[in-house]
Amino acid sequence: MLQQVNGQSSGSDAHGRESLREDLQAFLGGEAPLHQLDDLTKVNPVTLETVLRCLQARYTADTFYTRAGCTLVALNPFKPIPQLYSPEVMQEYHTAPQPQKLKPHIFTVGEQTYRNVKSLIEPVNQSIVVSGESGAGKTWTSRCLMKFYAVVAASPTSWESHKIAERIEQRILNSNPVMEAFGNACTLRNNNSSRFGKFIQLQLNRAQQMTGAAVQTYLLEKTRVACQASSERNFHIFYQICKGASADERLQWHLAEGAAFSWLPNPERTLEEDCFEVTREAMLHLGIDAPTQNNIFQALAGLLHLGNTRFADSGNEAQPCPLMDDAKCSVRTAASLLRLPEDPLLETLRIRTIRAGRRQQVFRKPCSRAECDTRRDCLAKLVYARLFDWLVSVINSSICADPDSWTTFIGLLDVYGFESFPTNSLEQLCINYANEKLQQHFVAHYLRAQQEEYTAEGLEWSTVSYQDNQTCLDLIEGSPVSICSLINEECRLNRPSSAAQLQTRIESALAGSPCLGHNKLSREPSFIVVHYAGSVRYHTAGLVEKNKDPIPPELTRLLQQSQDPLLKVLFPADPEEKSQEEPSGQSRAPVLTVVSKFKASLEQLLQVLHSTTPHYIRCIKPNSQGRAQMFHQEEVLSQLEACGLVETIHISAAGFPIRVSHRNFVERYELLRRLCPGAAPSPHGPPPDEGRSASREALGS
């Protein structure tokens, strides 16, 4: 109560009122405590604006992780913070009685998944879905989680088993720099962008010790080998070779200082990822010895020289295109490095073999200049894709455990982020399609499933509306007609496909979809898809050809002639091996398109995810410049809207935090019944629907 002296407030009272006014303003303004809110369910009211202000306040205070109910929000700091990921911090989260009471961290999610596998009566496989747009920090997050599991899931008793475990962990961690060197590249939005998707399965035995791992990859962007967008780079490994090779290696691989290569744009840029020695050391630990490494790098140098092989127009259609004057040396060097005969290499690039008629007569037709360029690019993409797949198989053979030695797994999913560039083609369509599928998995598993479960159990619940991206998925993959089905159909038709014709087919067949947009001002044939993360315009030029991904059989036969030990492994001279275009006429089998293969691999991935208990980490990109201490509200706002974060917070705040099935609840707490002698015997069997969490109210209250 305020006291007055001679009709005036005392000095202390006046100070108290002033303090109260400041506290009230701070409370109403919501600014002061925002950086201290480690869970967005505590923000009041929960709106996009308040969530945005909270994240900005925490980012300004160098606090980059925030809980959002079932999801962890990870803001990319764009600067190294080694103390945040040290082994001491890992142990702190691992040994904490209640890690959730510590500050939010990716290690909180890692420890939760580990304890779930360890403590459940019936252990359930776990998975962590790391999502976000390109440059948001997904690769770094996955890398740190792997290091965390390597530390906490290794506690063998004997010295011998400790050394074995240490070797396994080191190999698992060494797979990262190798896969990033060969599968990542610098793009407009990210200096270390994953140009493939990967699902890493960390395998645990009954004692919850990591015994091995397995890597599954998805859709390597192999077109990048021969085609890089303006201001972008090729895969890191090419720059590592050119910058890190010794003088003797430069001589051996014909990589002179300052040499210019068409497929090596922006070589003057120096990135952290250009460290050649780290890649070589990691390959050595994975069992790839020095001679084999030398073969790999020599072949890659050969591809760089192949990219300098340029052709001139032929004045006579009956004659093959001549080489440009400065390309003669390049083709000779490429043939030498790939250990291919020079004349057959030139002939294969410039002359097409056609089989026709009932007797399958062979005709030789000189290629146009554009066709020569296409065949050259195809040769490079074929070699690189086979090499990448071989590396993945070597990694798996090095780190994968015997099936009998592990019982459960924790999966880490790191896929390409949502992409929208000035020019978008089949690669971006597949990447964004994958992101749509993962967003639907989140919607189905959490936003929709939880609310349906509450309603089914008769709990008092007000439905929270959310953005469901099923309409967009129907447009891309639906039945009977979708973008994927129309592109595949164009591949099957025995006629040339024009870009304008494909645009017209898509717009007319799918005109009723609200997720199909139109850009009448565009001069180039294209269509617009309204994705959950924003609208993207896809160019139809070259889209059908990319989907076919044709490999002329002459190229495969040429590579089978190589005397290089590595290429002999990648292209075995197997008489029974048939290229996808080898059969002709009525005996020709349907070609499996890129879209069809990618769709099938996505379905397999989602089946694995559905069989696990999923956890979600949403990586957010504070700005598109990749600069520290810069928070662009508009860019972050669009990401928050796209991933449905506010709806997630609403459901998490109003829902039940602890979810245990009736059966597990009864089995776990059966001993407590003895403390209540008058209590009736509890049933040992689950209710009719044993999947329901009937005990949630008591646990969540």
Automatic annotation (TrEMBL):
<dbReference type="GO" id="GO:0000146">
    <property type="term" value="F:microfilament motor activity"/>
</dbReference>
<comment type="similarity">
    <text>Belongs to the TRAFAC class myosin-kinesin ATPase superfamily. Myosin family.</text>
</comment>
<dbReference type="GO" id="GO:0051015">
    <property type="term" value="F:actin filament binding"/>
</dbReference>
<dbReference type="GO" id="GO:0016459">
    <property type="term" value="C:myosin complex"/>
</dbReference>
<dbReference type="GO" id="GO:0005737">
    <property type="term" value="C:cytoplasm"/>
</dbReference>
<dbReference type="InterPro" id="IPR036961">
    <property type="entry name" value="Kinesin_motor_dom_sf"/>
</dbReference>
<keyword id="KW-0518">Myosin</keyword>
<keyword id="KW-0009">Actin-binding</keyword>
<dbReference type="GO" id="GO:0005524">
    <property type="term" value="F:ATP binding"/>
</dbReference>
<keyword id="KW-0677">Repeat</keyword>
<dbReference type="InterPro" id="IPR036035">
    <property type="entry name" value="MYSc_Myo19"/>
</dbReference>
<dbReference type="GO" id="GO:0007015">
    <property type="term" value="P:actin filament organization"/>
</dbReference>
<protein>
    <recommendedName>
        <fullName>Unconventional myosin-XIX</fullName>
    </recommendedName>
</protein>
<feature type="region of interest" description="Actin-binding">
    <location>
        <begin position="602"/>
        <end position="624"/>
    </location>
</feature>
<keyword id="KW-0505">Motor protein</keyword>
<keyword id="KW-0067">ATP-binding</keyword>
<feature type="binding site">
    <location>
        <begin position="132"/>
        <end position="139"/>
    </location>
    <ligand>
        <name>ATP</name>
    </ligand>
</feature>
<dbReference type="InterPro" id="IPR027417">
    <property type="entry name" value="P-loop_NTPase"/>
</dbReference>
<comment type="function">
    <text>Actin-based motor molecule with ATPase activity that localizes to the mitochondrion outer membrane. Motor protein that moves towards the plus-end of actin filaments. Required for mitochondrial inheritance during mitosis. May be involved in mitochondrial transport or positioning.</text>
</comment>
<feature type="region of interest" description="Disordered">
    <location>
        <begin position="679"/>
        <end position="701"/>
    </location>
</feature>
<dbReference type="InterPro" id="IPR001609">
    <property type="entry name" value="Myosin_head_motor_dom-like"/>
</dbReference>
<dbReference type="GO" id="GO:0016020">
    <property type="term" value="C:membrane"/>
</dbReference>
<keyword id="KW-0547">Nucleotide-binding</keyword>
<dbReference type="Pfam" id="PF00063">
    <property type="entry name" value="Myosin_head"/>
</dbReference>
<feature type="domain" description="Myosin motor">
    <location>
        <begin position="35"/>
        <end position="701"/>
    </location>
</feature>
